[in-house]
Design brief:
By secondary structure, this protein is α+β, with helices and mostly antiparallel strands. The protein has one domain: 2-Layer Sandwich (Alpha-Beta Plaits), CATH 3.30.70.1290. It has 9 helices and 4 strands; from the N terminus they run βαααββαβααααα. A 4-stranded antiparallel β-sheet has the order 2-3-1-4. Helix 1 packs antiparallel against helix 4 and helix 2 (51-59) packs antiparallel against helix 3. The radius of gyration is 19 Å and the shape is globular.
Length: 236
């Protein structure tokens, strides 16, 4: 019988916790380049593709052969701008977490298959290996309550903050995550914190909103709602 989180119920405008781990719990991000490449793939898939600009560069006689080859690859690449909204993420050495909104039915499956297949090809080529990189198909959990909506973003960001410091909060730079977008340190076009921040605190200034979210994430309490997102190691 498949585990609960592998039974995927895809709904238009549904919110989901997506995650996967390396096969045999192996490390899937071995260095900074691996993190950077994975994030660049997210950018490719989530930012709108400016096809008019790409075709213009392709037609330009001054564009070199290597650049034209890159442009052709980009034109053929799947794009999920308008279909998938990424609300939050973190990348850990042997797994990752996404919090997404699916704007059209079944776009999650296409997005995750494209991303994971592409990164596996990169990883296997770089490290001279063959076979699957992940432990089976990614897991998808439908978010069904306002409380889950808020606490999932905390769970994801806290993983990155705790990564290098045990139970003591580390720097937001410890692991790649969307936390800097939430506390005003960085702005990234393909990360969308606004909906969570708006639902977290309403009718207050953006500065207070950011401060309140920071306090919320960095206060570690024994919350059943927070603990509910912990991965089931046996099933996962």
């Amino acid at each position: 019988m498949p585990c609960l989180n592998s039974r995927k119920q895809y709904l238009k405008n549904g919110y989901y916790h997506l995650y996967n781990r390396g096969v045999e719990k192996r490390i899937i991000f071995l260095d900074k380049q691996d993190y950077s490449v994975f994030l660049s793939y997210l950018k490719d898939y989530l930012l709108p593709k400016d096809e008019e600009k790409l075709f213009a560069k392709l037609a330009d006689a001054n564009t070199c052969y290597r650049e034209k080859d890159k442009i052709n690859n980009l034109l053929q690449l799947n794009n999920f701008a308008g279909e998938i909204t990424l609300l939050a993420y973190c990348l850990m050495p042997n797994h990752f977490h996404f919090f997404v909104k699916q704007n059209s039915q079944n776009s999650i499956d296409k997005f995750m298959n494209s991303l994971c297949t592409r990164y596996t090809m990169y990883f296997n080529k770089k490290y001279k290996r063959v076979g699957s990189l992940y432990k089976g198909v990614y897991k998808a959990v439908l978010i069904t309550s306002d409380e889950q909506f808020v606490y999932l973003s905390k769970y994801i960001h806290l993983q990155a903050l705790l990564a290098s410091q045990g139970e003591a909060l580390g720097s937001w730079q410890a692991q790649p995550s969307s936390y800097p977008e939430y506390i005003g340190i960085r702005k990234t076009e393909w990360v969308n914190p606004e909906e969570i921040l708006e639902n977290f605190t309403k009718n207050i200034t953006s500065i207070t909103k950011i401060k309140s979210y920071k306090e919320f994430v960095e206060t570690i309490e024994d919350s059943e709602q927070y603990k509910s997102f912990d991965l089931d190691e046996e099933a996962y």
